[in-house]
Design goal:
alpha/beta, 8-stranded mixed sheet
């Protein structure tokens, strides 16, 4: 699958993740925390045995978070960064709880598997970098077995809204122009519609809002870089942001988004679930008639 839309530079994303992999000492706490929250949802799944594909595996944290009562027949670790996969392999190759482990350097926009291969496709804070999320969901649906599960998290549109505002305000005041410096993400409503349009059954989207506190804008930007989440927009300005713009943005940020003498950044985390259609599943009801909770849908 090759998307014709180019919003994000995959080369820039790969380079950002490569740098993080080289310096990695255990993974970023936000990614680790959301990974735990995501994999905990599998406790609500009755199915016991899985062949799993993970998109954007980073350094392999998911493996230790999987519920121990589940039988993992085969686990495919994939990432656009080969250096990330090397780190993952170093960490988990001697884990004997899963004998069949496969590591593949993979761009999620070019999924090479045949139809109906996987019981579960997992992805933690990665698919927001897809150039065409609709096509990506189509491919995930294609490679899932009937009654297979898609479970993912990614950043929603509220993420880093304070940083977007501060940089926009500073640049517009100093230069009377604005360049894209923070990625835009999908909304909860857009994500739910895409899951339905692709044909996933019983689609559900929910969210967490997480606030992280920093000393200043420079501390925040350093943390974003340490996540491997630096601006990868194709239309980004290739030159460094001027010191003058950053200093003004820092002042704006501190003036408007300060608590307890620290600035805060919002991270909106969207959780997605969708089932590959199967005759055993309940038929979808009319919009607005839902009576089941998220946990009931999972089980």
């Amino acid at each position: 699958m090759e998307s014709k839309l180019y919003i994000f530079s995959k080369k820039k994303l790969k380079n950002s993740r490569d740098r993080v992999a080289i310096r990695n000492t255990g993974g970023h706490f936000l990614f680790n925390e959301i990974n735990k929250r995501l994999t905990e949802r599998l406790l609500l799944i009755k199915k016991k045995s899985f062949t799993i594909l993970e998109l954007g595996s980073r350094t392999g944290t998911t493996l230790k978070n999987l519920p121990k009562e589940k039988n993992i027949k085969k686990f495919f670790f994939t990432d656009i960064s080969h250096k990330m996969l090397i780190k993952a392999k170093e960490k988990i190759i001697f884990n004997n709880s899963i004998k069949n482990k496969v590591f593949i350097n993979l761009n999620e926009e070019k999924i090479p598997f045949k139809e109906k291969v996987f019981d579960l496709v997992l992805s933690n804070l990665y698919l927001h970098w897809s150039n065409n999320f609709f096509e990506c969901l189509n491919e995930i649906n294609r490679i899932l077995k009937p009654n297979g599960l898609f479970l993912a998290s990614f950043f929603g549109n509220e993420t880093l809204k304070e940083l977007k505002y501060s940089l926009y305000k500073a640049e517009s005041e100093l230069r009377n122009e604005v360049t894209p410096r923070v990625s835009s993400f999908l909304t909860m409503q857009q994500t739910g519609s895409l899951l339905q349009n692709v044909g996933f059954n019983l689609p559900v989207v929910d969210k967490d809002i997480i606030k992280i506190f920093y000393r200043d804008l420079f501390d925040l930007m350093h943390d974003i870089k340490s996540m491997g989440e630096s601006n990868s927009l194709v239309g980004r300005k290739k030159s460094f942001t001027s010191k003058k713009v950053l200093e003004m943005a820092n002042k704006i940020y501190k003036k408007k988004f300060l608590e307890r003498n620290k600035i805060y950044a919002t991270y909106e985390i969207l959780y997605l679930i969708g089932w590959k259609k199967h005759s055993s599943q309940p038929k979808p009801k009319k919009p607005g008639s839902a009576t089941k909770t998220f946990s009931e849908v999972l089980s």
